[in-house]
Amino acid sequence: MKKLNVLVFPCGSENAGEIAQSLRYSLHVNRLIGASSCEDHGRFHFADYIGDVPFIHAPNFEAYFNDLLTTHQIDVIFATHDTVCEKLAEMDALEGCYLVNGDRLTTRIARRKSLTYSAFADADWLPKVYQPGEKPKSWPVIVKPDCGQGGNGVALAHNDEQLAQLMSSVDMPVVVEYLPGRELTVDCFTNRHGEVVWAGPRTRERVRAGIAMRSQSVPLDEEISAIAHEINAGLTLRGPWFFQLKQDSHGRWKLLEISCRVAGTMVAQRARGVNLPLMALHDFMGRDVVPLVTPHVTVIDRAIKTNVLTSLQYQRVYVDLDDTLIIDGQPNASVLAFLYQSRATGKSIHLITRHEKKPVDTLNHMAISPLLFDEIIHLQEGQKKSFYITGPAVFIDNYFPERLDVAQQKDVLVLDVDAVNFYLA
């Protein structure tokens, strides 16, 4: 079977980054393309990046997008935002592409909490939903936007006055009972036969901007499993999707929302061995997918990652040996990763050092192949490294006087060891 061209749109979000990480090494992917309508972190997520897509409500969006699909021969599309997913699902022609979880009615229901609650109105796991003008029987109540996500715009009303204020300030407000208990996200996967083959509950222990930065796996009990299967039976799903639950005052799980896209912290499942975006590709290719779960991972914790984009179009990388490539008697994994990354993109690699022994002997002793380097420059005491460096280039050295000297050269980006991580893909 041919390798697939996969498009992720928009590509700058956390869940887009998770799709990129999930698929970047897949042997079944020919091209992994990220596209966005504005300049964002997608440029760092995706080496194959398109940054000038019109916004989805622009008059020329559909024509541009269909042309993009044809030009790049896209086979599979991951939509990473609920509104975008709904928009793409509504398009009459996607040039024969497969939109993951792209059922038109399902994307519309999942995008609006009012439609979600209406679709499952008879379920005992639905929170009490107050109709317009209906006076709450108990306080407080939750007011949330109909098309919100990630907890954005959610507010608590403790009385009639606060409720009236929120009803006038929240966009398309929905009023539901207050759920005081703990909260879970349940990452799911439905195969092409309509079967739920994975449901993995996880906690949301530390949340920033609606994204769980710390998450712990929770056993799938009968109650949560039943909810997953009832949602799956009531909608047309295929691929990764998720829903969020919160406990009421009696400890019963109640639905917050459903989404038919990859979640920002679905990485928690991949860390356990369950790569949901990759499973979507196998399912698309007609293969039966079986989750292979490792029992040894239960908690993931995340932090902000910083990438740097340099305007210098460098062709060479020069790197020091002592306390740079080798630190405390061990190879520096970050520097090595950068060297291999640079080599893969056609840069020449140069070792430049005043090492007291033969550099090749030390490299071999550290299990670093001398063949990694296009050139090994072994300086004598008193010789300046700047004399041997030609820009445009990157120079990595832990010693400030060396960096200061080399920085006087034209078109040379000098880096201390700690800064190398900024440039790792």
UniProtKB/TrEMBL annotation:
SUPFAM superfamilies: Glutathione synthetase ATP-binding domain-like. InterPro entries: ATP-grasp, ATP_grasp_subdomain_1. PROSITE patterns: ATP_GRASP (PS50975). This is ATP-grasp domain-containing protein. It comes from Franconibacter daqui. Pfam families: ATPgrasp_Ter (PF15632). The keyword Nucleus does not apply. Gene3D superfamilies: 3.40.50.20, ATP-grasp fold, A domain, ATP-grasp fold, B domain. It comes from the Bacteria. Keywords: ATP-binding, Nucleotide-binding. The lineage of its organism: Bacteria, Pseudomonadati, Pseudomonadota, Gammaproteobacteria, Enterobacterales. The keyword Magnesium does not apply. Residues 107-285 form the ATP-grasp domain.
